Description:
It is built from seven helices and seven strands; from the N terminus they run αααβαββαβββαβα. The longest helix is centred in the N-terminal third of the chain and has 32 residues, at about 15-45. The protein is of the alpha+beta class. α4 packs across α5 (about 135-150).
Amino acid sequence: xxxxxxxxxxxxxxxxxxxxxxxxxxxxxxxxxxxxxxxxxxxxxxxxxxxxxxxxxxxxxxxxxxxxxxxxxxxxxxxxxxxxxxxxxxxxxxxxxxxxxxxxxxxxxxxxxxxxxxxxxxxxxxxxxxxxxxxxxxxxxxxxxxxxxxxxxxxxxxxxxxxxxxxxxxxxxxxxxxxxxxxxxxxxxxxxxxxxxxxxxxxxxxxxxxxxxxxx
Length: 216
């Protein structure tokens, strides 16, 4: 623009053009690492550093999105709560490094069974949660069984075989998504799977019919 407006003035005082070019280059050089740093910071805030899975902060945001979405679509949403069996024994016998490697490998095995829009989260320790949009109870149970088989059929942490217990529930087609209620249902189903021998999938419907233990 400067050359087109008055090229003679620019040639007579080239610093009038060099200075803004230098400023633009400096801004360009600095903006790239700043943008990269911002992206990395945002990623670190929602990703579990050990397993690479999404964390609780990301879960809360996704739950809010699905709640709003379900008010419009009224499609079912499945929920799976999963827990590694006897994880403490892995730490006790192989050390925490073996436990960490087992969690990393199991996380990869879980993700391998999911669709692009199914999201898995690490709740903490050896407990995971999977949200399955558009899936009813039967479909979510089938996915949970694939996850269970995928985990128990492979070695983790170099030479360990682990199993996983899973609790499953899903919202009813035509109803809104109530995360807290569904989580309680899936957690109760997981508890039943643990008490029934582990390495199995239990649904909320099965857990609701389990008789209460008699008082001692």
